[in-house]
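Hi R.,

Here's the chain you asked about this morning:
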Amino acid sequence: MKLAQRRIGIGRIVISSFLIGFAALAIWQALFHGAGDRKDLRYQGWKLGIYPMDLDQATSTMIGDVHPERLVVGKTKDQLIKKFGYATPIDQAPQYVKYCFFNSPYYGKQVFMLRHSNWMVLMKDGRAEQLLLVKGC
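And the predicted structure, written out as tokens:
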């Protein structure tokens, strides 16, 4: 009898834990929904590599991320292309981005843009050293 009661108790704990976890995720998604929200579960899943997300939307959402550099710094260009889809050479970037680059302390260094966003990646020794948001130059 005691063994059966233990199994029922453990089953209730497992089911309760699952329901609480599911409810927490549902509440999280209800509060932080929308593709442009850095706390959105889709963006968080994309950062972890477990959810496919529109990569242009992801680079836009990175602007509100507290630590977007964690997605880039230390990775090779091939790893970044795998994560972000493609890299845009600085000579193919928009005029504004080129103007900012040519008038910055990074001029002459190896850089590229993530997709067609304003995120510039500074490379050193084959790895991303810094992630820079090009704005207000």
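The mean pLDDT is 89.

Let me know if you need anything else.
M.
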